[in-house]
């Protein structure tokens, strides 16, 4: 099939291009005579490689041209990616391309002594790496056209070539079996790029004059650019090169607010708070319809649903980091074993070096992206919670305001919500640390056999000793937060009544009250820090005790030779164990703090709100009545056990000025609160037509 296509389009140029490569790579056929017909499988494979190399060179040339005129980007360069597949699809396909490149390189290393076989496989591996880059690096329209053409030709040629091989009863090697499906994915990406589609990212524009909330100063028509993060390709995001423009500006001068680029809509507090509010309202309404109360972990579940993709991506980075760290002792064992060999295979040594470089590269990149993604997701969670708490405070009922003082609400925003912004990194550390510990223990069993078993006994003992410390830490942390809220509540009340305190000369009395509350808060803080110190001491001691027990048991049982490779492997494994052992107490402490913060914010978000149906808002009519209350009964308590206002009938016409007068405790403020809808209405009706009530409340 492919031979027929090539034979129909073959000419002298093809013979010139393939002459030297076919004579060297394909060798001699037909009894010593070189056959340069396109029916030869080797010639067909060489032709495909040449097409890939030519398109690769063309793609590199378009990138070089884009770099030359980078400062003069045209409008079509930014609109050229409007029809591109989503970032997640490109990331998956590029990962598959890298896997195909690794398969070709591994095949080349296996045949490193056969230059005629190794060189083409290395070239194909380089081509697949370039294909992975072409999925993300398309700065101009010519680069995009060349990349799409490359994907289509590669997919069609590979499909025709492999189909002809399979039709002839032959089998494909492993590298070709991996690369063929990936080439079909590239064809799908090419088709997706040709389909018209709007841009999925919306960026804030500082120069947009349609907003009525802001107006530029006189002569300040400067536009603030959007961050390069949202336009960076795969390698730009991996290397954080999107920060280079900002770093160049910071190197030349001190940064001001106008130099900081804007963020996309997905990262704004408005978007994240709206997303969380919708999910929280839907969750609460679903629980109400099912007649089941809102669970104690509802806030954590809603946050997980809202930011599931970001949390999973961060967990993937953490998992890659954990794997790259866990394989370090095995690589060390391989190097020591290789150095002790009398006959050393060059391919094995190169493979070990390549694995070491790959492991360190993955560790470095995954760790940095883990931290960055954790901070970015934490910023979204923090801004969403802060905005939601503020909006909830505006809708809080009188009973809810009595349960939560102003100081406590400020504490929810400044302490609890801010603390939850750091929860993502600690959350993933909570499951990667035990998993890393499991991998380390498995490595010890592999190196020491049964000699590693006695070393698990002190490890388990140290683990069980940490359980009571964790329970005590949780109790102390909860009591510390309660004491802190009590101090903030008292401080807020004292500051609000400072005029009376100064008038009556009660400063010393209230100062002693604040100091006593602070002493109680400090007591629980001291207890918490002491228990954390005890836990840290135990976990710092555990690696030393475990290693001593393991070496002793191995020497007595003789389960493994205590040679250089075993000793270095065990030492490296214990070093790998030291990080999770050291971090586990901190992880438990932080998880306890996050649980307390989640419970406090969840309790606040579940408080009663002002009922909108207590006051009926009606449009203006010709009746002339602006405010009407008919047989209204109101109570500060929703149960109605004690009525504050009974059988109220009120009518205020348009243009009238009404003053509510009366002695202290007669219900003046209650009446105005009832007109505002801030007192629960038990019966009757309240209606108004655009009423605004303002009053001065003095003590």
TrEMBL record:
Per the record, GO CC terms? membrane
Cited InterPro entries: ABC1_TM_dom, ABC1_TM_sf, ABC_transporter-like_ATP-bd, ABC_transporter_C-like, ABCC_6TM_D1, P-loop_NTPase
Q: Name one GO molecular function term.
A: ABC-type transporter activity
Q: Which Pfam families match?
A: ABC_membrane (PF00664), ABC_tran (PF00005)
Q: How does it sit in the membrane?
A: Multi-pass membrane protein
CDD domains, per database record: ABC_6TM_ABCC_D1 (cd18579)
**What subcellular compartments does it reside in?**
Membrane
Instruction: Keywords in alphabetical order, please.
Output: ATP-binding, Membrane, Nucleotide-binding, Transmembrane, Transmembrane helix, Transport
Which PANTHER family does the entry mention?
Answer: ABC TRANSPORTER C FAMILY MEMBER 8, ATP-BINDING CASSETTE SUB-FAMILY C
Please state what the protein is called: Multidrug resistance protein associated1
Source species: Zea mays
């Amino acid at each position: 099939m492919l031979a027929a296509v090539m034979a129909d389009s073959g000419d002298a140029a093809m013979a010139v291009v393939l002459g030297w490569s076919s004579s060297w790579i394909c060798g001699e056929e037909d009894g010593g005579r070189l056959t340069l017909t396109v029916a030869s499988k080797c010639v067909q494979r060489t032709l495909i490689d040449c097409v890939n190399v030519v398109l690769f060179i063309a793609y590199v040339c378009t990138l070089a041209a884009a770099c030359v005129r980078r400062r003069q980007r045209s409008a079509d360069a930014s609109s050229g990616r409007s029809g591109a597949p989503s970032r997640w699809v490109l990331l998956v396909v590029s990962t598959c391309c890298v896997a195909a490149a690794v398969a070709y390189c591994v095949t080349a290393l296996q045949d490193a002594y056969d230059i005629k076989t190794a060189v083409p496989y290395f070239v194909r591996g380089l081509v697949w790496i370039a294909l992975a880059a072409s999925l993300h690096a398309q700065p101009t329209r010519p680069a995009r056209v060349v990349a799409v053409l490359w994907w289509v030709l590669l997919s069609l040629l590979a499909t025709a070539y492999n189909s002809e091989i399979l039709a002839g009863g032959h089998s494909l090697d492993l590298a070709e079996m991996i690369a063929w499906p990936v080439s079909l994915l590239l064809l799908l990406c090419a088709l997706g790029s040709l389909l018209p589609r709007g841009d999925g990212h919306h960026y804030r524009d500082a120069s947009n004059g349609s907003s009525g909330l802001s107006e530029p100063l006189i002569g300040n028509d400067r536009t603030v650019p959007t961050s390069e993060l949202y336009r960076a390709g795969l390698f730009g995001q991996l290397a954080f090169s999107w920060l280079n423009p900002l770093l160049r500006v910071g190197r030349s001068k001190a940064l001001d607010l106008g130099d900081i680029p804007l963020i996309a809509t997905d990262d704004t507090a408005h978007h994240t708070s709206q997303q969380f509010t919708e999910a929280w309202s839907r969750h609460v309404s679903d629980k109400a319809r099912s007649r089941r109360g809102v669970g104690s972990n509802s806030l954590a579940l809603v946050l997980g649903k809202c930011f599931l993709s970001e949390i999973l991506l961060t967990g993937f980075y953490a998992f890659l980091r954990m794997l790259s760290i866990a394989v370090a002792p095995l690589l060390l064992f391989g190097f020591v074993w290789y150095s002790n060999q009398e006959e050393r295979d060059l391919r094995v040594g190169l493979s070990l070096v390549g694995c070491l470089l790959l492991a360190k590269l993955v560790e470095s990149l995954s760790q940095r992206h883990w931290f960055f993604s954790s901070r970015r997701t934490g910023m979204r969670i923090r801004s969403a919670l802060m905005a939601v708490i503020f909006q909830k405070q505006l809708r809080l009922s009188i009973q809810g305001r009595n349960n939560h003082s102003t100081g406590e609400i400020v504490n929810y925003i400044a302490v609890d919500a801010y603390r939850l912004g750091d929860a993502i990194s600690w959350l993933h550390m909570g499951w990667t640390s035990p998993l890393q510990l499991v991998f380390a223990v498995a490595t010890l069993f592999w190196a020491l056999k049964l000699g590693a078993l006695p070393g698990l006994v002190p490890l388990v003992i140290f683990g069980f000793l940490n359980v009571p410390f964790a329970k005590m830490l949780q109790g102390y942390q909860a009591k510390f937060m309660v004491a802190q809220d009590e101090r903030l509540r008292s401080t807020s009340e004292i500051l609000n009544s400072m005029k009376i305190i100064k008038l009556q000369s009660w400063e010393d009395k209230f100062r002693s009250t604040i100091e006593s509350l602070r002493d109680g808060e400090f007591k629980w803080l001291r207890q918490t820090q002491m228990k954390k110190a005890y836990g840290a001491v135990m976990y710092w001691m555990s690696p030393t005790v475990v290693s001593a027990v393991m070496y002793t048991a191995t020497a007595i049982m003789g389960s493994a030779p205590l040679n250089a490779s075993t000793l270095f492997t065990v030492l490296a494994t214990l070093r790998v164990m030291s990080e999770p052992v050291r971090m586990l107490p901190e992880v438990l402490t932080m998880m306890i703090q996050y649980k307390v913060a989640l419970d406090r914010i969840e309790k606040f978000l579940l408080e009663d709100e002002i009922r909108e149906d207590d006051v009926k808002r009606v449009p203006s009519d010709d009746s002339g009545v602006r405010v009407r209350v008919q047989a209204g009964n109101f109570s500060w308590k929703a149960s109605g056990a004690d009525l504050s206002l009974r059988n109220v009938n009120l009518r205020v016409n348009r243009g009238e000025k009404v003053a509510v007068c009366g002695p202290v405790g007669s219900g003046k403020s209650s009446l105005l609160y009832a007109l505002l809808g801030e007192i629960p209405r038990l019966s009757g009706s309240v209606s108004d037509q655009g009423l605004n009530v303002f009053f001065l409340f003095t003590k």
